[in-house]
Design goal:
eight-stranded antiparallel β-sheet, about 25% strand, globular, DNA-binding
DNA sequence: ATGACGATTTACT
DNA sequence: GTAAATCGTCATA
C-alpha cells in the first residue's frame, strides 16, 4: 500500500474533524513556516490542547463571546488564531469547526527540524543549548518561529510565501500518546480537569509546565 | 477613562 | 518554592 499522503499539506477537511480529534491527530505531523529570504522553519508537533468553544469556560469564545481578539475563532476550520498573552508572549492555534463552532487547537510544543540555528537566535539561546529548550511551550514556540499578531487569521492552505501549513505523517499508535488536563486555565472551574491536552510520551520537547 | 487580568516564561530566594 | 516582567483586551462606568 503506497502512502502517498506522507508529506502532503493537510487540507481543510482535516481541520473540520472534531476538535479533539484534530488535536490528537496533529501529534507527529510537521509544522512549517515558509518565508521569503529566510531559512525554512519546521518542527514535529509534540504537544497540543483542544479548546471547545461555546461550552468550554477556558475558550475565548465561551458562551458565544465574540471580541476583536477572538474573531478569527469564528472563521471556518483551517486557519490560524494567534493572540498575545501576558503582554509578552504569543500563542499559536489552528481554528477548527465552522462559523457556528468557534473552536481551536493550541500548538503547545514542537521538536525543531529545520531552521534550528535561527530559531535559537530568535530565542536568544546559546547555539550549544539542546533543542528541547527551543519550542517546548506555546510562548517559546512563537518566539522561535517569530509568530505574532501579523500571523493571525492566516489560511493554512495559503500557497507561496510567506505561508504556514502542516505536513501529514503516519499516524502515531495510541500507546505513544499521553493525555492530561490543560495548562494555565485555573480560572475555568471544572474545565481545568477536562482531558484535552495531548502529547507524545517521553518526548524531550514537551513542555515541562505542570497542569493542575 | 479606569482597572484587573491572562491558554507564559524566566529569574531569583 | 515565589515573584516579576509587561501590555492588549475586556468589563465596568
Amino acid at each position: 500500500m503506497s502512502q502517498t499522503f506522507l508529506g502532503k499539506i493537510l487540507k481543510q477537511d482535516f481541520y473540520k474533524l472534531p476538535t479533539e480529534t484534530v488535536a490528537y491527530q496533529l501529534l507527529g505531523k510537521t509544522l512549517v513556516f515558509d518565508r521569503p529570504s529566510r531559512p525554512l522553519f519546521s518542527g514535529v508537533i509534540v504537544e497540543t490542547e483542544a479548546y471547545l468553544g461555546l461550552e468550554d469556560p477556558a475558550c475565548h469564545s465561551f458562551g458565544g463571546k465574540k471580541t476583536p481578539r477572538s474573531q478569527h475563532l469564528y472563521q471556518d476550520a483551517g486557519s490560524t488564531y494567534v493572540y498575545l498573552i501576558y503582554g509578552m508572549y504569543h500563542c499559536l492555534n489552528f481554528v477548527t469547526g465552522d462559523q457556528q463552532t468557534p473552536e481551536a487547537v493550541l500548538i503547545r510544543a514542537i521538536e525543531p527540524q529545520k531552521g534550528i540555528q535561527m530559531m535559537k537566535q530568535n530565542r536568544k539561546m546559546n547555539q550549544d543549548k539542546p533543542i528541547s529548550f527551543i519550542a517546548s511551550g506555546p510562548g517559546r514556540l512563537c518566539q522561535a518561529f517569530g509568530f505574532d499578531l501579523t500571523h493571525n487569521g492566516w489560511s493554512l492552505q495559503k500557497t507561496g510565501r510567506p505561508s504556514i501549513y502542516v505536513l501529514d505523517a503516519k499516524p502515531l499508535s495510541a500507546d505513544q500518546i499521553g493525555t492530561g488536563s490543560r495548562v494555565g486555565i485555573g480560572y475555568a472551574g471544572d474545565a481545568c480537569f477536562w482531558p484535552l491536552r495531548f502529547y507524545i510520551k517521553d518526548h524531550p520537547c514537551v513542555s515541562k509546565v505542570r497542569p493542575l
